[in-house]
Amino acid sequence: MNGRTPGRDLLWVEYAFIAAILAGLAWSAWFFFKYRYLPQPWFYEPSGTFMDWYSLSIWGHQKGAYVIAGSIYPPLSFVVLRLFSIESCYPHFEAEWARSCDTLGIYALTGILIVNAVLTFLTFRKHDRESYVPRAFALSFGFPMLFAYERGNLLLFGYAALVLGFGPLLKSARLRWVFGGLALNFKVYMVSVIAAPLLRRRWLQTEMMLVWGVIIYLVTWLIQGEGSPGQLLTNVTSYLGGFGAGGFLDLWYASSFVPAIDFLQGRTAPITTLLDLRLIDILLPTVTGFMRTVQASLLLAAAAAWLRPEVVTTRRVAFIALALALCSSEAGGYTQILLLFFVFMEKWGGAARNLSLIIAYTLCVPVEIVIMQIPPMVHESFLGGTEVIAPFGVGLMSFVRLIGCHVIMLCLSWATILEVCRDIQVQGWRHRWRYRNDAPILPFVDRPAPVAGGQRPQHPAV
Question: How many separate domains does the chain show?
C-alpha cells in the first residue's frame, strides 16, 4: 500500500477541467470585446443582463408584487432589493431605464458573487484540503454561478444562506438554523433541503429552521406590507400549475424536463413546424419516461436513507431532497449551483460518484456547440452599450447540461440505494443501537443491540 487516495490520483482531472473553464471564460471575454455581446451559452437576449434583479426591484418600492405581478418570492426578497437599490430610479414601472440609473444593484450583485466565492473556498477547504481549490473555483466561477450573476438572480443570496446553513463552516447549530430560515425565504423550494434531515431522524434541525423561516417571513411581511400566506400560496400554486415553455428559447438553460415535455406536447408552440411528427412520438415518451425514472430513483433513495440513516451522509440526503424538488418543477438552470454544492462534497471512488463528479465539472464549462442556426436579429446589448446583430442557435450543450444534471441525480440515487443494501447485507438489522427507541420498521426486524467495540463495517465505494 502506498497510502495514496483515489482523490489525489485523480486531482489532475479536476485541474484539467479548471483549465477548460478558464479557456471558456477567455473565449467569452474575447468574443465580447470583438462583437460587444456575450456569445452562447450566455443568455440569448443581450439586452436582458441583470434583468431578473431590476424587474423585481420595482416591487421593492411599489406595491403590487403579489397582486399585479403574481410574484412567488417571499417578502424577504423585496426587502433586500429595496435595501440595495436607489429609490429615485424607480418613479415608474420601467425596469430597463432603472438599470442604467441604479448602479447600486450591480454593485450588490457583484458583492454577493465575491462573498459566495469566499464562502465556497472556505467551506470546501474545511471539508477536504486536497481538492478544495479546483472544486471551489469550478463552483464559484463556473457557468451556473456566472449565469445566475448575468441574470441578476436572487438565487445568489439563497446560495450563500444554503452554504452557511448546510455546510461545515459554522459550528453553531443555532446559526445554521437562522441561515436555513433565510434560505427558505429566498427560494420557496429550499423547503425540500430543510425537510431533508427528517430522513436522518434529526427532527430538531428541521423544526428550528422552519421556526426561523416563519419568524423571518413574518418580520419581512410586516416590513414590506404585502405577501400574506394566502397571496403567496395562490401565486405558487398558479405558477406550478401554469408553467410551460413559451417558445423553443425557453429551453435555453432549463433545470427540468417540464418545459421540454410541454413543448413536445404542443401546449405552447406549433411543434410540428420544427419537428417531424414521428420524431415527436419517439421523443415525448422517452423524455417523460426518463424524468419519471429519475423521480422514482430519488424517491427510492430517500426511502433507503430513511431506512438506514447512519449510512447516508447529511450532504447526500440534502442533495436527494433538493434534486427531487428541482427535477419536478422548472426553476431555471442556474439552480444547478445548489446541487453542485453537494455533489462537489463527494469523494472519488466508485463508478457512480466518479461519473457524477466528471459531469459536475462539465456543467461548469462555459462553452456551446451550435447545431442549428436561428436567423440573426438586431438586439440592444446592455453590456456593449450598442445595437448588435446576434446570430444565436440551438445549442447541443443546452441538452447536455439538462441530461447531465439528471444523470447525476440517477447516479447518486442508486449509489445511495446500493450503499444501504450493502450495509443491510453486511451488518443485518440488530447492530443499530442508537436507533433502539425507534418504532420497528417491519415485523421481522430484530431489536437493536450494542455493537461490540463500537466499530462499524466498511463497505466498498459505489
Answer: 1
163 located within any domain: yes
Nearest to residue 330, comparing CAs of 405, 435, 395, 233?
405
Distance CA 127, CA 122 (A): 9
What's the grid cell of residue 326? Answer: 428541482
The residue with cell 420595482 is 58
Amino acid symbol at 143: F
Q: Which residue has the higher pLDDT, 241 or 157?
A: 157
Taken as a whole, the chain contains a residue count of: 462
Interatomic CA distance for residues 378 and 36, integer angstroms:
13
- Give the pLDDT confidence of 120-129 residue by residue, as tens digits: 999 999 999 9
203 domain-assigned: yes
The closest alpha carbon to 168, from 211, 214, 210, 132, belongs to: 132
3-state secondary structure 97-161: HHHHHCHHHHHHHHHHHHHHHHHHHHHHHHHCCCCHHHHHHHHHHCHHHHHHHHHCCCHHHHHHH
Residue 357 inside a domain? The answer is yes
Backbone phi and psi for residue 456, each to the nearest 5 degrees, phi listed first: -105, 145
Residue 244: predicted pLDDT: 47
Beta bridge partners of 394: 372
Q: Give one DSSP letter per residue of 388-405, joined into a string.
A: EEE--EEEHHHHHHHHHH
CB 299 within 8 A of CB 324: yes
Is 1 a member of any domain? no
